[in-house]
Design a protein that fits this description.
It is found in: Cell membrane. It is built from 17 helices and 16 strands. Strands 1, 6, 7, 8, 9, 10, 11, 12, 13, 14, 15 and 16 form a twelve-stranded antiparallel beta sheet that branches. The chain has a four-stranded parallel beta sheet with strand order 3-2-4-5, with helices on both faces.
């Protein structure tokens, strides 16, 4: 006959510390002190009630028989020791080419890094709650080494909840739901194996969720896509085999044989044009748009910009196929992989997005993401000179160091106001990220420009703070930093031409220069599940 030692101990006068967990917390938690006797009695009475509920819930789980889980849950609990399960999952997500999954892995890992010390260094030492007595837990579940640390709160549960919440803030439900289910199973396993009371687990979950949500204070969660309201459906435009599609593949921007092979398999009737680095990309795109019903472009943001110009000139819809380094515009549409582009085409869902413009005497250029002037144009020029020798990312790092050490502010007049500008960005639409370097936006058709610039105030410290603002994107209190929203911006320079970067490509302009908008001018394909669109036929 099994004797419930914990129940016998609870029957004694005063009981044991393990049977009165919340009562012990009342005595040891900081701040209880020697208040008035009546208040203390009410406090102890409430904690005794919570303790009774906690014991009843633990007993219910301990005596439960869940066939098949007797062996699974203990092993799952052990796999989560020291965060091994979650960091392994983060590594798997990080090896994908999906930026959303990489952000999810990073945010989940940061949440664990915040929750773990909060639990182990603060919570456990502050409350010092004993572990449960495991007399009711079957031995088959107790395959773990008895923990010697305090019970409250549960570190496993905090890490599980923090990682799952961090992933849910970034990833799609198809990834976030399995991670959340696994996290819930780990938290339940901590009670099922007798390691924690349910109250310990609930407290750990709360800390983990709070840690993950707290990461948004310094790193705002990015929405899955930038929404639009101009939904379109064009009958007969889409065919199963891709007839009428002309795809221009910029091999120099990363669109290689893998993307070309995917398009050839999925859209066998589509015409595929390979643009090598020595070819005139603008001419090839213009010719392709002239004979296409749908113009597809494979490459980075610069290639998509050139494709958008051709699509606007010939009045055909644009299908963006990510094949560059960053692919900001494709990702804003919700297209993160070439397979997403094929699915968007077959769904036949189109929308209209705004186009930013840069007008100078006798010429107009466009941008889909951002235009910039100042130090960033120097960085791009230096990177392009270096990347053929050492690669794009090393070239970017070297160019950044050289630029921020040597770049001087430029003398310009912004809407008639003289400024010494060190760095300036003009966004096609209002961006949601903080700081002078915008990275994502909520809408692609809001009709506004998002202007952010840093005026140079002199001194080495000012330059370093401005550099930190660019790198981290959140130091919006940098001296000289200003931001406003408008529909147009006029730029003049007293010392001749300026260099302006549009979607990562630089060129010289002759002032006066006017930044403006062409609202809902470009028709593009977007995923069928895209939220926020009002369909129209």
């Amino acid at each position: 006959m099994r004797v419930n030692l914990r129940r016998l101990d609870a029957a004694r006068p005063g009981g044991s510390s393990a049977s009165r967990p919340f009562t012990d917390l009342a005595r040891q938690a900081p701040g209880t002190g020697r208040g008035r006797r009546r208040a203390r009695l009410r406090h102890h009475r409430a904690l005794r009630g919570l303790s009774a509920i906690d014991r009843w819930a633990f007993d219910a789980v301990a005596t439960a028989r869940l066939p098949g889980l007797e062996y699974v849950l203990p092993r799952l609990s052990r796999a989560a020791d020291n965060g091994v399960l979650w960091f392994t999952t983060a590594a798997v997500l990080g090896t994908t080419r999906r930026p959303r999954l990489r952000r999810a892995a990073l945010r989940g890992s940061i949440a664990i890094a915040l929750a773990s010390p909060a639990v182990n260094l603060l919570g456990k030492h502050a409350f010092r709650r004993p572990r449960p007595v495991v007399d009711l837990v079957p031995q088959v579940r107790i395959r773990w080494k008895l923990p010697t640390s305090h019970a409250f709160p549960s570190g496993h549960s905090a890490s599980a909840a923090g990682f799952a919440t961090g992933v849910a803030l970034e990833a799609s439900p198809i990834v976030a739901v399995p991670v959340a289910v696994t996290a819930a199973a780990v938290a339940f396993a901590r009670v099922y194996t007798g390691a924690h009371y349910p109250g310990d687990v609930l407290a750990g979950i709360s800390i983990g969720v709070a840690a993950a949500l707290g990461t948004r204070l310094v790193w705002p969660a990015r929405p899955p896509v930038a929404t639009t309201v101009h939904g379109l459906f064009v009958p007969g435009l889409v065919t199963e085999d891709g007839r009428g599609v002309v795809a221009v593949v910029n091999t120099g921007a990363g669109g290689g044989d893998g993307v070309t092979g995917l398009l050839a398999r999925e859209l066998p009737a589509a015409e595929i044009v390979r643009a090598d680095p020595q070819d005139d990309l603008t001419k090839l795109l213009d010719e392709a748009a002239g004979r296409a019903r749908v113009l597809a472009v494979v490459g980075g943001d610069g290639t998509v910009n050139a494709g958008a110009r051709a699509a606007l000139r010939h009045g055909v819809p644009l299908l963006t196929v990510p094949g560059g380094t960053l692919d900001h515009f494709s990702r804003a549409l919700g297209i993160e992989h070439p397979a997403d582009a094929v699915a968007a085409y077959r769904a036949g869902r189109l929308t209209r997005v705004d186009v930013g413009t840069v007008r100078q005497p006798g010429e107009e250029a466009i941008f889909l993401n951002t235009a910039s002037f100042g130090a960033y144009t120097d960085l791009v020029d230096r990177r392009e000179r270096l990347e053929q020798r050492i690669g794009k990312w090393p070239a970017t790092a070297v160019a950044a160091v050289r630029t921020f050490r040597r770049a001087a502010p430029i003398e310009v007049s912004v809407d008639g106001r003289p400024r010494r500008v060190w760095l300036a960005f003009v966004g096609n639409g209002v961006y949601g990220s903080h700081g002078p370097a915008p990275t994502w936006r909520r809408r692609l058709d809001d009709g506004r420009l998002d202007v952010r610039l840093i005026s140079f105030s002199g001194g080495h410290v000012s330059r370093l703070r401005a550099l930190a603002a660019v790198l981290f994107g959140h130091l919006h209190l940098t001296p000289g930093y200003s931001r406003w929203k408008t529909t147009s911006l006029t730029l003049t320079a007293p010392h001749g031409d300026l260099r302006v970067a549009r979607d990562g490509e630089t060129h010289a302009v002759s002032p006066p220069v006017e930044f403006g908008k062409r609202p809902a001018a470009l028709t593009v394909f977007c995923p069928a599940h895209r939220p926020g669109m009002t369909p129209a036929r």
